[in-house]
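Worked example

This section walks through a single chain of length 635. The input is the sequence exactly as stored; nothing has been trimmed or padded.
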Amino acid sequence: MDKWTIQDAEALYRINAWGNGYFHISEQGEVEVRLKDKSPDSSVSLLSIAKGLQMRGMKLPVLLRFSNILDDRIQHINESFLQAIADVGYQGTYRGVYPIKVNQQQQVVEEICKYGKQYHHGLETGSKAELIIALAHIDDPQAYVICNGYKDEEYIDLALRGLSLGIQTVLVVEMPGEVGIILERSKALGIKPNIGLRMKPSTVASGHWTDSGGDRSVFGLNTTQVIEVVDRLRNESMLDCLILLHYHLGSQIPTIHDIRVGATEAARVYAGLIHEGAPMGLLDIGGGLAIDYDGTHSDSSNSRNYSTKEYCDDVVEEIMNICKEEKITHPTILSESGRALVTYYSVLLMNVLDTNTFRYAPDASSFEQSESLPALENLLYVRTMLNEKNAQECLNDLNYYREEIRNKFLYGKVNIRERAAAEHVYWEIVAEIQEKYGIVNAAEFRKLEHQLSDIYYANFSLFQSLPDVWAIDQLFPIMPIHMLDVRPDRKAVLSDITCDSEGKIDRFIGDRETEDTLALHTPPEDDDYILGVFLVGAYQETLGDLHNLLGDTNVATVTFENGSFSLHNELEGDTVADVLSYVEYEPKRLEGMIRAKAEKAVEEGRITPLERRKIISAYTAGMRGYTYYETDQEE
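Given that input, the structure is written out below as tokens.
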């Protein structure tokens, strides 16, 4: 077997393809993150971070956030648009607005507003709660707050009063009925609104979110409704308030063709509004800038066939061409990139708790012990006939005879010990076929490899930390963060610690296509085997649920400043008491109930007062405990 190298590990896990320069493997076989300018001088090992947190008392799983990466993403998107504008002589400018819904965590919004201020980067809100966040954090009269979503009077009043504070709020009409209430509240408060219209594009983009465009998209106005709104504003002498056109094709758009067509259509509508007499000035192209999760640079839903530069160049060029043709002033371009901003920002680290193997090493003694069991005669005969030429045929026979034994077990003709022996022999022979001969049929071989793969039980909840894996088959890069200077010797699927068979990951990024298994190492006996899930900064924290009452994980932020690293903003994950309160239980009342039960047991002589004390102590300690598996309980 050839010597294993770091380059082999890089190729196996495709880290250079999806890592975007932020992640790489060191010569010590550890995944490192480059925090500043993607420079090796700013690299830090994820394993050293994990060990440092554990020594400080923070247990796995833990979500790591990297402020420097978020800053770099803000700079990258803004500079890419500004460069595209300069390259073609576009007369307008660019303003980014971050959709709070993508990751509402306070650290994210605060960092975007702080670092993004130099670019006048604003926020997009879709609810009253998000608008309240935006009004408090935006401190820049040149940054925009785009107010989307369903709006009641209170939402509209907040946005209008934001204008009084010098915050450039824009109320985007997404449904015809919103116009009346916006006009009514603006007159009542005596505040002239900034109004935008969300058009319903006929363009339907590819990917997971195709329903964001087309005639049946939920939000937005068709062209007839757009004209109706224009006429109403004109009749109310409020047409001068109409300053923005907004459209949204969807999130994670994989093909540049859809983006170009959408920009062209929107620019035509924008020009039409100007010709109708609206002042306009802002064209909001929405979100959609995709992330290359699998590193294939393709038009799959987990990738994209374009670069950020191409995205910016094409959008600017399409809008400029339409404006030149229509002889109108170039608008300020807004985009609502959220996924492209925060995806690289977070990494989930989790330790492997246990493994379950289906790949048995050949053991001659097991065959000898089975020879006396009549039920196994056919299985054992197949093994004696096995050779390279008939490997596929033997596999088919094995499947047939195992099914026969299982059926006999159902009718009481085979006992449980005989069935257990049959299963063991079956897997031994199948493993021998796979390892020695392989299977001629590629599809059968892949199926067999999946059947023989191990199950690695990792300390996390899929539904809490990676809900898109379960909901929309999202692929995230997953790999061990250490031992990468050693060849992986196992193939595995991952299971979380929920009691749900859906809590598993069995689709992974492969060399050319999606793989059913992940190459992993046999976990060391005396130390944690730690896996990292990368590119999880978008949506995963906010979409997670409390399946099995497994709550938020521990969180720590890593920053590189003045040539050194620092850990800060350490947030403890949910305790058992926390998650119980989320579902309407009162921890103190529960403790009172268990105290009463324990006291009754003392009165009945079933336990001693000292045993009662220990029971209460264990119960209250459990209340204070982390909801995930704790491997080093404190005394």
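What to look for: The first helix runs from residue 6 to 13.
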